[in-house]
Amino acid sequence: MKDESGILFVLSGPSGVGKGTVRQRLFEEQTELQYSISMTTRAMRPGEREGVDYFYRSNEEFEQMIANNELLEYAKYVNNYYGTPRAFVEETLAKGKDVFLEIEVQGALQVKNNFPQGVFIFLFPPSLEELKNRIVGRGTETEELVINRLKEARKEIEMMHAYDYVVVNDDVDKAVQRVKSIIQSEHLKRERVEKQYKRILEVE
């Protein structure tokens, strides 16, 4: 039953909720997960490697990929494009490997539009007060930026209905265990298992 295709898992949520921390901890425990490598038009930095840190492309190549619908999502930050290449995700899933994508809410909604068969997980703060404390705790944001991020977070929380699961990040270890449970339960869904058994019955 190893010919089962992989599943795309998308972890998303408002800025400051701890997506990166949960993803890093998860990958320490779930070594078989494949992280979705992003594509960018920014220059390669010292120590970075093609196909490991990012896929590096020119502006023209990236815009051609947008035109050809070859990206599951993309955005532009400080004059550079960033996006998720469809081919890498689909090829990895076809090998039977699960792909994990950690991304902002707007990007996740783009992915859902382009790849609705993915599993979408919303990482939720215990409260807006706690989210504010986490953003302020970074020490990198001005007061105005903190207020703007919280306004944006309120809007993003209202988009929760577009997701399949909601995980409250009140404790990183607990949040990671909840995500692991989601991954396991998705592989045990009747529709997925049924497809495999049908193949076995056909062979017999």
Short description:
With 204 residues, the chain is of the alpha/beta class. It has helices at 19-29, 59-67, 86-94, 105-114, 128-137, 143-157, 172-187, 190-203, and strands spanning 8-12, 34-35, 39-40, 55-56, 71-77, 80-85, 99-103, 119-124, 165-168. Helix content is 46%, strand content 19%.
Q: Mind explaining what this structure looks like?
A:
It is a single chain. The chain has 204 residues and is an alpha/beta fold. The chain has a domain at 8-36 and 97-203: Rossmann fold. Helix content is 46%, strand content 19%. The strands form two sheets. A five-stranded parallel sheet has the order 2-7-1-8-9, with helices on both faces. It has a four-stranded mixed sheet with strand order 4-3-6-5. Helix 1 crosses helix 7 (172-187). The longest helix is centred in the last third of the chain and has 16 residues, at 172-187. The model has no long low-confidence stretch (mean pLDDT 90). Essential for recycling GMP and indirectly, cGMP. It is an enzyme of class 2 (transferase). GO terms for molecular function: GMP kinase activity. This is Guanylate kinase.
